[in-house]
Amino acid sequence: MALISCFTSPQGLQGMLTCLRDTEGMTGILVVVALLAGWIAVQYFADARCVRQAWESRPGLPVPLAQFGSARHADAVHAFANRELYQAMLRGLENGLTETGYKLTRDRSRRVVAIPLEHRLTISRWVFRARQWYMSPGMSEQRTKDIEDDAVNDGYAGMLLNVLIRGCAHEGWYITEPVPEFTPTSFPLKQVSINVRATQAVLTSDVVSIINDVAGKVRMQPSFPHHPTCTVADVVNSGLNYEVRQQEIDEPPGWFNSPADVSYRTISPKDILHSS
Asked: With DSSP H G I counted as helix, E B as strand and the rest as coil, what are the percentages for the chain, rounded to 5?
């Protein structure tokens, strides 16, 4: 009991050593030595473990092979097998999107929030078909078609599609509708229509000069009218007159139903002479 009281009394380290020497003689000293030796051993093994972990985590150090049948081995085989399967299903997803008029984008703001049920069924059929071809490459087409129909009808194919959509979104891929042919990149749209008329045969260079002059004036305008405007003018000493219409709109197409420079047509003096 006296030995225990030396450890419990609040006298500090020196008081504890004095208590041990006075009460138990060599027994107390040996206990102290054993405790110090144990503490030193614990510190030594802790430091050695830290050094070993730092050595094993060095960049470029090869990771030891997993033991056969271990959890790490099973995880690696599972990841490898499913990688090829999901690559096949992603190709099916892409084919289904192409058939239904969709595409993939990295722009999250352009993602489609809801896909119509008809399109979802078609895309999910492509996804399940890719999975079935990978899992059972020797199955007959009719048998594959029957299983495919069942998977679409009972919702299994749709579940696979949802998994792929969420996984793609997690990696920054989103489903979007293709941009229509005539969709400008910025708004508002500034539109100019030039109509040149001739009362007699004129040179093409005179017509080009009018267009260039109008283009220069439009370019120098500080702003565009929000409502359509029309300006009519005659060319001095010439049988030409022209009409310029301008407007600024917030939505396409305005006056033009297709992008600029879609098609070209050669204009002859005869066309100018007979234009209205």
From this structure: 55, 10, 35
Helix axes of 141-154 and 117-135: crossing angle, nearest 10 degrees: 130
**Is the model's pLDDT at 13 over the cut of 70?**
no
CA distance 27 to 72: 51
List C-alpha distances in Å: 248 to 227, 245, 270: 7, 11, 33
Q: For residue range 49-67, what is the model confidence (pLDDT) as tens digits?
A: 777 666 555 565 566 777 8
Q: Rounded to the nearest 5 degrees, what angle is found at the Cα of 160, between the Cα atoms of 154 and 165?
A: 135
Query: How far is it, in rounded angstroms, from Cα 165 to Cα 160?
Result: 9
DSSP state of 73: H
Q: How long is the chain?
A: 276
Q: Does residue 161 register a pLDDT over 60? A: yes
Residue written as token pair 């045969």: 201
Per the CB < 8 A criterion, the answer to whether 104 and 176 are in contact is yes
Residue listed under structure tokens 């289904």? 96
Instruction: Give per-residue pLDDT as tens, 133-157.
Output: 999 989 998 999 999 999 999 999 9
CA distances in angstroms from 121 to 47, 118, 156, 240, listed in the order given: 61, 5, 11, 61
The H or E element that residue 171 is part of is none
